[in-house]
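Collaborator request log, item 7. Partner lab (contact: R.S.) asked for a structural prediction of PTS lactose transporter subunit IIB to inform their binding assays.
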Amino acid sequence: MRIIVVCGAGASSTFIAHRIRRAAADRGLSVRAQASSASGLDEILQGADVLLVGEHLAEQLVALRERAVAASVPIAILPSGASSAPDGEEALDLALATAGARS
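Returned to partner:
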């Protein structure tokens, strides 16, 4: 599974992607989580299984959703506090549920 995590500049998404990879490894799941800024999203969105968006990008959600739909990638908003969570369990669960919803 390939998960893209996007935030404004890409910094907090890097931490979330790292935590998702660690949580997936702990569960024995094959997951590739990548961070991206909103501006660099189109370059890596193709072939992704799910797009997770930081809640602080809610005002850009319509545009991000359009980009995700164009790439046939399901999208979900990360819960508040995801960037400060001690692990990536909740974000990983959200990604798995969102990706599973399209199948």
